[in-house]
Amino acid sequence: MATLSDVARKAVVSKMTVSRVINHPEQVSAELRQLVYNSMKELNYVPNYAAQALVHNRTQVIKFLILEEMDTTEPYYMNLLAGIAIELDQRHYSLQLVTRSSHTIGRCDGLIVTGMRETDYDHIISHLEQPVILFGENKKGYDYVDVDNKKGMQMVTEHILNHGCQKILFYGIEIDEPFMRSRIEGYEETMKMKQLLPQINLMKNSSHIAQFEAEKVLQKNHERIAFVCASDRLGIGVVHAAQRLGLNIPGDVMVTGFDGVFLDRIAQPKLTTIRQPIVEMGKTCAKLLLDKIDQDGMKQGNRIYKPELIIRNTTTT
């Protein structure tokens, strides 16, 4: 069986270089990395990551802790999980999905946490002993990754205004969390800049509830109207309401969503939305966490991604 020393001799590099390629490939040039990989392949060398973990007193396990119910956000989290898994796999870590009731079972080297609510910071997050990266904006000083929620809602509201519609309702999720406050703020500021009255409606993140609420509004409405929604799920509900009442989209009713993960593409007509680069954001969560582990818990800061406006048939023909 080939050893690390054999790989080093064949590649004509030091054992330390081979070790760095295996454990920290991002620290090695692409040319040198490929040279070592080729030598490993020719010698059928497979690194013993379990032994390395024991030497460094690590588990090679990262937990992904979701603190909210997943039934209403599954497409979103599948993309996030994919991004996290891709980065962890490159660094030879395994991923364990846990919830608020199971996150203390078993050891790990660090956690990526999402779906936080205000009480979770004191009851759960502050008690975590391992390095943590949050997926989602927070004001508590924790390292996090998120999209610019305020900018995204400004972009989509301006898009509606540029199409001549001035009666714009905001349909948001009834939850007092930073991401929702930022989306509301983006909508409100854009409306007030045009001296228009913001109309904010909050509800559960459910297409059925959004449809019910929108039908009540549309039955009494006699002018062109738009709904900017804080999720694609809510946007789809509004689309169903307009279709049920025989209204033209986008002629009578304009609708937008937010997320751009999966639901926007299966809606008919396809939904104009703000797309978040969820897979890339997942990769960044994992990279920041692994760097934090390697740097003995050193603060990594925040990464804010730019939102992208995807224009489809619910706002243009």
UniProtKB/TrEMBL annotation:
One Pfam family it belongs to: LacI
Keyword line: DNA-binding, Transcription, Transcription regulation
Organism, as annotated: Sporolactobacillus mangiferae
InterPro entries: HTH_LacI, LacI/GalR-like_sensor, Lambda_DNA-bd_dom_sf, Peripla_BP_I
UniProt cross-references to CDD domains, sorted A to Z: HTH_LacI (cd01392)
Keyword Transcription regulation set for record: yes
SMART domains found in the cross-reference section: HTH_LACI
Record-given protein name: LacI family transcriptional regulator
Annotated HTH lacI-type domain residues: 2-56
PROSITE patterns linked: HTH_LACI_1, HTH_LACI_2
